[in-house]
Design brief:
Helix content is about 70%, strand content about 0%. By secondary structure, it is mainly α.
């Protein structure tokens, strides 16, 4: 793929998201957006490209959350991964809602990869778990995230004593 092809694909994805921004849950067809019809062969290919965009956002958020959790002596990896998933969903609400509403069979392998990533990032599954088990754990975590309002899921955190000491040392 050339750079021109890459930028054309990105423009097509942006055009699709702009087209569905008022109703991401509605029907989706490549034919509805002329640029998308030129770039993608069918709706499944379009959905896979949109899911790739979602995974780039989610993976970035999860990596930042993991790095921050590693600096804290008492990390809450489940909370950090949950907050990262919610932040990615808030950052790209149209993309997130569109993918939630159009969960086709073509997306199953990438959805399962997303579930495994979430299970591993949250520490609910280990690297030695079977892919099926990690997928099951990640699916349960996602179901909980979807069903729990963000206000309830993220109570205010009290800073740890070590964290407070680090701030004092840094300011001295």
């Amino acid at each position: 793929m050339s750079w021109n092809d890459y930028y054309r694909r990105q423009a097509a994805l942006d055009a699709v998201l702009a087209h569905v921004r008022h109703n991401p849950e509605g029907p989706l067809s490549v034919a509805d957006v002329p640029l998308a019809a030129e770039v993608f062969t069918d709706t499944d290919e379009l959905l896979l490209a949109l899911h790739h965009r979602w995974m780039l956002r989610l993976t970035g958020r999860l990596e930042v959350a993991a790095a921050e959790a590693d600096r804290d002596p008492a990390p809450d990896r489940v909370g950090a991964a949950s907050a990262a998933w919610r932040a990615a969903a808030e950052e790209s609400p149209v993309l997130h809602r569109l993918l939630e509403a159009h969960d086709t069979e073509a997306l199953r392998p990438v959805r399962e990869a997303e579930q495994r990533l979430l299970a591993l990032s949250s520490g609910l599954a280990d690297d030695d778990e079977s892919p099926e088990e990690a997928t099951r754990i990640g699916a349960a975590h996602l179901a909980l995230l979807r069903s729990t309002p963000a206000e309830v899921a993220a109570p205010p955190r009290r800073p740890s004593a070590v964290g407070l000491l680090r701030r004092l040392v840094a300011s001295a």
